[in-house]
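Before drawing any conclusions, I looked closely at one protein, both as residues and as discrete backbone shape codes, quoted below without any editing:
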Amino acid sequence: MMTIMFTKSTQTGVKRATQSRKEATHERIVEVAARAIRRSGYAGTGVADIMKEAGLTHGGFYAHFASRETLLAEAADRAGAEAVGLSANIAAAAAPGQSLQELMRAYLSQQHLEDVENGCPVAALGSEMHRQAPEVRHAATRRIKEMIDVVARQLLDWGTPGAHEQAMFMVSSMVGAMVMARAVDDSRLSEALREAALKHFSGVGK
């Protein structure tokens, strides 16, 4: 009969493998939830549906999250981080002097209009945010501030109070234009709303 001796290093390896699997599962749940909140709203996103979409049982939820609000906060943070990261990448890849225009064109594009579950969470969820738990609002607020900073960095006078104020106005305008463009059932009006925002800010930036 063979006896297997588990050394301290073996036990550590098993523990790390278990943690890695748990972390990967946790990430999968958050990724699914980040899409779900943008697609269905906070109120329309249930734990059972998220776990099912992630390929997991409902009973395993509390091994990863203390509450539904904890999950929603992580999902809001993930969705916001994705939007900020994408915007920063678009600006960085743009030709000199075109970063702000490229960022705005991407944000106000037909693709973003249609791809709600992978788009900006503020445009998808803004009207619901004030009803959410403090930890959810805190996560959303942090990412909104980052988005404003990304836009401010594209302005000629970046680093001044005026640039920050201009960036706040521009982000608010982009979000508002996208919300209205999605709200109407007239495709021509939807396009006109987005084009009007782009035209208004066509001369702003580096």
